[in-house]
Amino acid sequence: MPGENLSREEARERAELLSVDGYEVVLDLTSAVDEAEPSEGPRTFRSVTTVRFRAAAPGASSFADLIAPSVNSVTLNGRALDPAEVFDGARIALADLASENTLVVDANCAYSRTGEGMHRFVDPEDGEVYLYTQYEPADARRVYANFEQPDLKAPYRFEVTAPEGWQVWSNGVEESREGLTRRFAETAPISTYITCVVAGPYHYVTDTYTRGDLTIPLGAMCRKGLAKHFDADEVFLVTKQGFDLFHEIFDYPYPFGKYDQAFVPEYNLGAMENPGMVTFREEYIFRGKVTQASYERRCNTILHEMAHMWFGDLVTMKWWDDLWLKESFADFMGSFGLAEATRFDQAWVTFANNRKAWAYRADQLPSTHPITADIRDLEDAKLNFDGITYAKGAAVLKQLVAYVGREAFLEGARRYFKAHAYGNTTLQDLLSVLAEVSGRDMAQWSRAWLQTAGVNTLTPVATYDAAGRLTELAVLQEGDELRPHRVAVGLYRLEADGTLVRYARAETDVAGARTVVAELAGLDRPDLILVNDDDLTYCKIRFDEGSLDTLRAHLGDLTDPLARALCWSALWNLTRDALMPARDFLSLVLAHAGRESDVGVLQMLHAQALTAVTHYAAPERRERGGRELAAGALHELRLAEPGSEHQLTWARFFAASASSEGDFQLLLGLLDGSARIDGLDVDQELRWDFLLPLAAHGAVDEAAIEAELARDDTASGKRHQVRCLAARPSAAVKDQAWAAVVESDALSNALVEATIAGMQQPSRRDLLTGFTDRYFEVIEGIWARRSIQIGMHVVKGLYPSLQDSAATLEATDAWLAAHADAAPALRRLVLESRDDLARALRAQSRDA
């Protein structure tokens, strides 16, 4: 048996043979609260699954999926099978199938500490136990026996026995209760990866959504310890706004009955679109003051997951090749919904500056792939939840709306839902309906945008007459695949009042290597030419030299927030591509970021500035660059309106860039109250933000960190404490952090992530030099032994990127050469890290 992985070919063969009529899953979760840990092996729960399915070829053989420590019994069509003979730890062999079959599997499944399968969390604040499931792409088999692939949809009935005093939820409504056992209504046909169970003493709030004759019961839940922070009314408001919009534009009623939303601990993702039972990371419940950008991100995620009820849950891709059919659409609809239905009407600014930065990075890695990807197996699928599938796909859909028109796009979606409800689709199913409603050649568009990889660069080239008027403006396109782009080109000039405003705009189709924008000929010379104004297409943009000079002096004077966001994004791409020295980008941030009105863009600039100092600045310039950033941050912090979100954003950036004794003394003073900045409320989350750099620079000791945990003895506090402890500048501390992550599996997924983040502090690169060889010695074993989620944390998080030298590149290349047969997903992670390091070295050379 091939083990836990599943290939596309195996899935295709099984789908051709089998069709599933239904599941009954019975779970006994009472063991979750047993005080004693098991003497051997993991803590387990009993899982009994009954599957009714048909086989197209009687007498054929197939297999069911199950990952469990032990199996008590397997019965196929009333015939008892020996678990020792048919179960190999990941699959159950099924021979001599009948036309109609019933499989019953009684297993002991393991609770998880990695966020995969049935995750068990013990709240350090009150000792309460909380459970939830997370399956995508293929971890339902850790909870019950099944056929784990998206195109074998079926209805499900769940029955769950839970400890006294607990609440339990699943995809369907609770239908009956007897003692500690709840039985839930049968679901519509759905895929395994979106089934769900949430159980525990959660704080639960209810509401109702109504639209005409449609009534949807709403629920929202979180741990009891977070109840005092839970703004459920805001969550329900966004939920209702989303339902209003999607019912209006999709013309297909929400198909899954109730709509619960659970905010759960130690979650690996942002959220998951389980129909009727959406799960979110609990960090979306804010324990302290946050900016509107944080609320916007949460709102986007709520709408993203709601869009999945149609794109992904009602209509599901046949295999993970077409993951974009759900994720790209949901990512697009998140921003679309924000702009159309909520108070966040500037959502496309965030999209242009933030989401697309993720896409640009992913599309320039050696692992870049077409939006419709070649997904050979489940490990490939796990890594394909990336910036291309999400953000590039969403950007391309935004381009598609410009290409076919908004109404044609939405009418195509409506017909797609009605034609394929509760079924599975491929790329061609969507293209055919879009071609039908738009009259456009979707095959050509798909070949250019969905079936090729890489990002194009668009550059303006202008010529002028003696009077300074434009005689010709052309757009040059570069890239391996020259695509058709619907773009707007904006001309901007400096006004007498000092503002930089647009005075002309032309929308055109760019095709091939050179396109002339005839509509703009004869106009006065602009101070700034902005290609892809209004962000209609997916591309990197460049500037002519005059425009670049204008931005250096007047970027903060650009009045339109979307235009500013696009310029900042382009300047960052120039820096990443080693076409602009890092010091120039940092100078632009110091000169103009203080005038940025959009706090989400400002937060992105802060993150990029820190990356520039840490990775792209020439080594001899890092210390000076860091001091300049900290000084600039403190200057803007003191200028910011007291109590404003900009003040909070600059306070966090000051802490993150702090590097001098004076900086540390101010942070210590803000913590103990001896220093004060008018309007700045140093709440618990901000205290931890201040404590991390102090720990990393040795300005506080372990006792101070433990004292802070005593103030905040919660799950969130524990993560912060672990991060701060691992950040301390000591070789012994770094060894302890390494051992905790690499040599032990005792830490949960959240604490593994926190330990790695603390260990990898750039302030003391010298303390990490000894880990390069150790990293390459252990990663193949880590990948083989640990779950894929933990493997990803370790391989990505512990890559020696702070040892930024040619020697680290050579060590990486040596490992790749010696491990040509390593798991492709592992090699991909190493190749991506290598590419980031090579890019950093090129940027350092440019900065020098």
Explain how this protein is built.
The protein is α+β, with helices and mostly antiparallel strands and 848 residues long. Helices cover 43% and strands 20% of the residues. It has 27 helices and 28 strands. Strands 1, 2, 4, 5, 7, 8, 9, 10, 11, 12, 13 and 14 form a 12-stranded mixed sheet that branches. Helix 3 (232-250) links the parallel strand 16 (214-222) and strand 17. The chain is globular and about 90 Å long.
Write a compact overview of the structure shown:
This protein has 27 helices and 28 strands. It is α+β, with helices and mostly antiparallel strands. Strand 16 (214-222), helix 3 and strand 17 (259-264) form a beta-alpha-beta unit.
Largest sheet: 12 strands, mixed
* Alpha carbon gyration radius: 28 Å
Q: Would you count the extended β strands for me?
A: 28
Q: What class do helices, strands and sheet pairing give?
A: alpha+beta
Spans with pLDDT under 50 lasting ≥5 residues?
none
Query: What portion of residues belong to β-strands?
Result: 15-25%
Question: Mean of the pLDDT scores?
Answer: 96
Ends distance: 55 Å
Count the DSSP helices. Answer: 27
Helix content: 40-55%
3D shape: globular
Describe this protein with a few key phrases:
single chain, 848 residues, alpha+beta, twelve-stranded mixed sheet, 28 strands, 43% helix
Secondary structure: elements and pairs:
Elements: H1 8-17, E1 18-28, E2 44-55, E3 62-65, E4 70-76, E5 79-81, H2 83-86, E6 91-94, E7 100-112, E8 117-122, E9 129-134, E10 156-161, E11 167-170, E12 174-178, E13 181-184, E14 197-200, E15 203-211, E16 214-222, H3 232-250, E17 259-264, E18 271-272, E19 277-281, H4 292-308, E20 316-317, H5 324-341, H6 347-362, H7 378-383, H8 388-404, H9 406-420, E21 424-425, H10 427-438, H11 442-449, E22 457-464, E23 470-478, E24 485-494, E25 500-510, E26 514-516, E27 528-533, E28 540-541, H12 545-554, H13 561-576, H14 582-592, H15 599-616, H16 622-639, H17 645-657, H18 661-672, H19 684-696, H20 702-711, H21 715-727, H22 731-742, H23 749-759, H24 771-785, H25 788-797, H26 806-818, H27 824-847
Parallel strand pairs: 1-10, 7-8, 16-17, 17-19, 20-21, 22-28
Antiparallel strand pairs: 1-2, 2-7, 3-6, 4-5, 4-7, 8-9, 9-14, 10-13, 11-14, 12-13, 15-16, 18-19, 22-23, 23-26, 24-25, 24-27
Helix pairs in contact: 3-4, 4-5, 5-8, 6-8, 6-13, 8-9, 9-10, 13-15, 14-15, 15-16, 15-17, 16-17, 17-19, 18-19, 19-20, 19-21, 20-21, 21-23, 22-23, 23-25, 24-25, 25-27, 26-27
